[in-house]
């Protein structure tokens, strides 16, 4: 889905949007490897050191890091820290209940969407859209159907709220529009983004 959303990003912000989605995907890859949680924690700590603590001695030659250092807006480190923390929660072997899912959504979803929307004055709408999208995305990729259902329940409990209305935030508005019907209906998007979601995305893009 991120590749489709990039088509709706303003040309001058497209590289930044792409970089943020790529960072989320790289962090996801760390967690999806599975294995010893300690190894995942070490890998996530490396991203903390490079992006949050801005350790210039690390990350040289890594394309994502080099681009980050070239174009990241001021304050991006704190937002990236939230995103990393969200993935750290998923890497933990501890079970996730409603409270843990809400914290994950605020960190990963809120962190990612606020990172993309750097400088936006629509913080509340951006955060809500991010939380709901992150829970919907998680529901579509976990094997535990009970956890997937609970993730959608947590997202639904947050209510619809206003979507980000700024023209520059259209990709985030569309991401929320794709996720929202499944959240309301309690339909787990097994396998994630599908053809029916593509149709939903096109319709939402026409409506603006």
Shape: globular
Query: What's the end-to-end separation, in Å?
Result: 17 Å
Largest sheet: none
Helix residue percentage: 55-70%
Series of H and E elements? HHHHHHHHHH
**Total number of helical segments?**
10
What is the oligomeric state here? single chain
Approximately what portion of the residues adopt beta-strand conformation? under 5%
The tally of strands reads: 0
Write the layout of secondary structure elements.
Elements: H1 2-6, H2 14-32, H3 37-52, H4 63-71, H5 76-91, H6 98-116, H7 123-139, H8 145-157, H9 170-185, H10 195-207
Helix pairs in contact: 2-4, 2-5, 2-6, 3-5, 5-6, 6-7, 7-8, 7-9, 8-9, 9-10
Question: Can you walk me through this structure?
Answer:
This protein has 208 residues and is an all-alpha fold. Helices cover 69% and strands 0% of the residues. The chain is built from ten helices and no strands. The chain has helices spanning 2-6, 14-32, 37-52, 63-71, 76-91, 98-116, 123-139, 145-157, 170-185, 195-207. The chain is globular, with a radius of gyration of 16 Å. The model has no long low-confidence stretch (mean pLDDT 93).
Give the tags.
single chain, 208 residues, mainly alpha
What's the short story on this structure?
With 208 residues, the protein is mostly helical. The chain has helices at residues 2-6, 14-32, 37-52, 63-71, 76-91, 98-116, 123-139, 145-157, 170-185, 195-207.
